[in-house]
């Protein structure tokens, strides 16, 4: 029977290969120019794999030094990931300045709100503080991305295939990380090996999704920004539309009240 | 497993479900700015409200029942229920059109008022829920036929206010001059 650690090593090695492959795909498609933060994020994951491999070889899998190296590099990777998703959000909404201004404030409020809640919700020992913080960050990333997609859907903002897959990959990875972290926090040691394995497998699947998206991405025609209206005109029109929506709502109310008075 | 941990897992699962919902391709075809503003300048369905309300009044079919034409009265009511449902559909379509217009406005706006957007979202949720509720009531035959006595008079006022709002919207758009087609349409309407 194959040991979980061996399986994890194998999955880890394969993941690193995929990371390098994705990096080459990005370079070949010249996407490192349009998505520099995402490119930097993939680069950071490769460096993390290298740093962790060297640390495990020198100090062993269970040593405190390896633990430090892994979590410090994880901090760098998470920062790079935040930059990458901010870049994606800006790419999706950049042509819609009004929506971007509103959504950016809302998205960061959601991200920070979830982060603060997640940190405060679990008041365990300092031992698990790193794990809690890690879960909080992942949850806030997932919430940020879901709100981004919901906003884009609400305003009918078109999303390019590449950005769509990048968001799906990031979000699924963060959600599964949260689930993995929560399971690990409960069972701790007995499932630590499995946790590591699940994490690598989740990232492996994410990388396959991204590689496919990058390979299928074509030179997208630049989205033409709609001609803007003046803020005053928008405010007036928006108010009028709201008034009409309000009146339609009232009309429905009259119908409802009429119905209710019978019953 | 502690409650916060369970909540984290539940939150993550909810986010995955929301993600699956959000990445679905949109059902409706995207409208252009011109399409929406042309449609906005067309005749509105709410102008039919007094007639619809009148048709739902019990007095309108009571004379048939009194005259012994139960079957005919039943058929008439069923027909009117169908019309009321269609009216509700039109009302919803109109609402969606207005929302589409507001989205287009948001897309071309350099700045969005969060309060307006929030108010719109709140109304949208309320409208959709009420509409579904009303539709199901009508389908289940829970509709009344006798309680609209004075309501139709109220609707007259409401319709007038809606017309005023529409005219005002047209004026604003004409003033704005960013919507040439709508502007043209507005002018042709004025000359009629």
End-to-end distance of chain B: 72 Å
Shape of chain B: flat
Helix content of chain B: over 70%
Strand content of chain A: under 5%
Largest sheet of chain B: none
What's the β-strand tally of chain B? 0
Mean pLDDT of chain A: 79
Number of helices in the DSSP assignment of chain B: 8
What is the oligomer described by this structure? heterodimer
Fraction of residues of chain A in helices? over 70%
Order of helices and strands of chain B: HHHHHHHH
- Let me know the largest β-sheet of chain A: none
The gross shape of chain A turns out to be: globular
**H/E element sequence of chain A:** HHHHHHHHH
Strand segment tally of chain A: 0
User: What's the CATH C level of chain A?
Assistant: Mainly Alpha
Description:
The complex is a heterodimer of chains A (263) and B (192). Chain A is mainly α. Chain A has helices at 4-28, 31-34, 36-59, 64-93, 97-121, 129-154, 161-187, 192-216, 231-262. Chain A contains 9 helices and no strands. The relative contact order of chain A is 0.10. The model of chain A is unreliable at 259-263 (pLDDT under 50). Chain B is mainly α and 192 residues long. In chain B, helix 2 packs across helix 5. At the A-B interface, helix 5, helix 6, helix 7 and helix 9 of A face helix 1, helix 5, helix 6 and helix 7 of B.
């Amino acid at each position: 029977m194959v040991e979980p650690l061996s399986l994890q090593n194998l999955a880890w090695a394969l993941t690193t290969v995929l990371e390098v492959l994705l990096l080459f795909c990005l370079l070949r498609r010249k996407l490192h120019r349009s998505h520099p933060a995402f490119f930097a994020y993939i680069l950071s994951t490769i460096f993390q794999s290298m740093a962790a491999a060297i640390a495990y070889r020198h100090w062993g899998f269970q040593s405190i030094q390896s633990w430090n190296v892994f979590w410090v590099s994880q901090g760098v990777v998470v920062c790079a990931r935040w930059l990458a998703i901010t870049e994606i959000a800006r790419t999706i909404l950049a042509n819609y300045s009004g929506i971007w201004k509103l959504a950016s404030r809302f998205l960061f409020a959601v991200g920070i709100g979830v982060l603060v809640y997640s940190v405060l919700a679990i008041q365990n020992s300092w031992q698990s503080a790193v794990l809690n913080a890690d879960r909080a960050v992942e949850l806030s990333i997932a919430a940020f991305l879901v709100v981004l997609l919901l906003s884009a859907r609400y305003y009918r903002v078109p999303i390019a295939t590449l950005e769509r897959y990048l968001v799906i990959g990031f979000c699924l990875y963060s959600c599964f990380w949260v689930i993995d972290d929560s399971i690990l926090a409960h069972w701790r040691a007995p499932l630590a090996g499995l946790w590591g394995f699940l994490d690598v497998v989740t990232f492996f699947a994410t990388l396959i999704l991204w590689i496919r998206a990058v390979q299928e991405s074509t030179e997208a025609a630049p989205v033409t920004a709609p001609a803007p209206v003046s803020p005053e005109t928008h405010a007036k029109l928006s108010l009028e539309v709201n008034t009409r929506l309000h009146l339609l709502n009232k009309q429905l109310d009259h119908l409802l009240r009429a119905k209710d008075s019978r019953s | 497993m502690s409650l916060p941990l369970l909540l984290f897992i539940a939150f993550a699962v909810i986010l995955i479900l929301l993600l699956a919902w959000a990445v679905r391709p949109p059902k409706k075809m995207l409208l252009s700015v011109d399409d929406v503003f042309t449609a906005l300048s067309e005749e509105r369905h709410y102008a039919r409200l007094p007639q619809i309300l009148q048709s739902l009044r019990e007095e309108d079919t009571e004379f048939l029942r009194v005259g012994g034409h139960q079957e005919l009265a039943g058929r008439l009511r069923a027909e009117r229920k169908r019309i009321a449902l269609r009216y509700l559909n039109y009302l919803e379509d109109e609402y969606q059109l207005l929302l589409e217009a507001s989205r287009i406005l948001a897309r071309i706006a350099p700045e969005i008022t969060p309060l307006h957007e929030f108010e719109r979202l709140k109304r949208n949720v309320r409208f959709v829920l009420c509409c579904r509720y009303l539709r199901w009531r009508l389908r289940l035959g829970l509709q009344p036929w006798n309680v609209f006595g004075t309501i139709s008079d109220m609707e007259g006022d409401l319709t007038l206010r809606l017309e005023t709002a529409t005219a005002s919207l047209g004026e604003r758009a004409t003033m704005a001059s960013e919507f040439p087609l709508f502007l043209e349409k507005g002018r042709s309407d004025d000359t009629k």
